[in-house]
Write a structure and sequence with these properties.
single chain; about 220 residues; alpha/beta; six-stranded parallel sheet; 6 strands
């Protein structure tokens, strides 16, 4: 039977590795240390956005661009420190990567995080060597929900967007994959999907353990 896809493109944070919860801890620690207010609902709204977008949202909420920059940078410092001992792969992630790689699919990561962070987190989780290409949020002008990062990932792999599947955990990621003309598989993490978001997905999965079978029946 002919395959539906040539490539599988993964988001990282909240999809492959459980970094969103570390991020929330990072925001809490940074805000407390610098005397800022970053309520949880604000931190949740950052999920799926790249650095410029998060900084703009944080500045708007705090009302002080300099303080927002310092909180943002300290949050990343705290997040990296936490990841050294607390970073975990999402359930089923490693088995899914092994299975898809063995089936001959081209694999890529397209994450709003910076390249250094992506490589460190994937390496710690034992995933880095599975990927043929990495695209970071700093490589595109427009972050998710714009399709730019997924289109660039497909270009790096040498595959057509329509022959690519996107694996995401966030609404903004789903919107980006859908706008790129790719089939999107959603594995919800922090944010539950609305009916509108579900309509943009090919399938909603409980964990990445279900992904190889879902790709096979596409």
């Amino acid at each position: 039977m002919a395959r539906a896809f040539d490539a599988i493109i993964f988001d990282m944070d909240g999809t492959l590795v459980d970094t969103e919860r570390l991020g929330f801890k990072g925001w809490d620690l940074a805000a407390a240390e610098l005397g800022a207010d970053v309520p949880r609902e604000l931190a949740v709204s950052f999920v799926g956005h790249n650095e410029p977008a998060v900084l703009a949202m944080l500045t708007d909420a705090i009302g002080d661009a300099d303080l927002a920059r310092r909180v943002f940078d300290l949050h990343w410092q705290k997040r990296r420190e936490l990841a050294e001992t607390e970073l975990e792969a999402k359930p089923g992630a490693l088995d899914a990567l092994r299975s898809l790689k063995a089936e001959g699919y081209r694999l890529a990561v397209a994450s709003s995080s910076g390249r250094e962070i992506i490589e460190i987190n994937l390496s710690r989780a034992g995933m880095l060597d599975y990927f043929d290409a990495i695209t970071a949020g700093t490589e595109v002008e427009n972050g998710k929900p714009a399709p730019d990062i997924f289109l660039l990932a497909a270009q790096k792999l040498g595959v057509e967007p329509a022959r690519s599947a996107v694996i995401e955990d966030s609404p903004n990621g789903v919107r980006a994959g859908h706008a790129a003309g790719m089939q999107v598989y959603l594995v919800p993490d922090i944010i539950a999907p609305t009916p509108q978001i579900e309509a943009m997905t090919h399938e909603v999965l409980s964990t990445l353990a279900d992904l190889p079978a879902a790709i096979a029946r596409a």
